[in-house]
Design brief:
By secondary structure, the chain is α+β, with helices and mostly antiparallel strands. The chain has one domain. The chain is 61% helix and 8% strand. The protein has a 4-stranded antiparallel sheet. The protein is elongated, with a radius of gyration of 18 Å. The N and C termini lie far apart (52 Å).
Amino acid sequence: MTAKTATDPKPKTEDEASTPEADELEGVDEVNEILRTGTPMEIAGVQVEVKRIRTREFLKLTRILTVGFGGGLTEFDWSDDEAELQGQLMAAFINAMPLAENEVIHFLFAMLDTEGLTKKQLVTVRDEMENPEPETALALIEQIMENEIQEFARLGKQMVAWWGATKPKL
């Protein structure tokens, strides 16, 4: 099954822009960022939400990346070019996948908010995520990276600073 992410709302016409409903939608992206809500996504025909990363998920991701990339994470360009960093992280994640197969599957499922699903829907999503279609896995990885790139950039810079401060002198 292919995964589908929610699309942006269609552009407003002049008539829509003046309605109270349209005014209520202004700033929704900023509010979502503050609330750190996830992104809707369809997995095996079931609507779920890709959660925002928290500590446990971050640790799972770090484990995957260090298995496949090791200390090379400190060599990343943690500059302000988010598109470049996102590409680097996605490449590192994809390169690590063969070495961390189970960790990747657990991480991807952990990033899905399945709260509110019926038992049948939950079983459907679990079955799909046990061995997802490559398109589903890649779409989910891409959505996670897109959702979290600013957080990854901030944490990466902090990690490199800590590593530099604690690196043993030879």
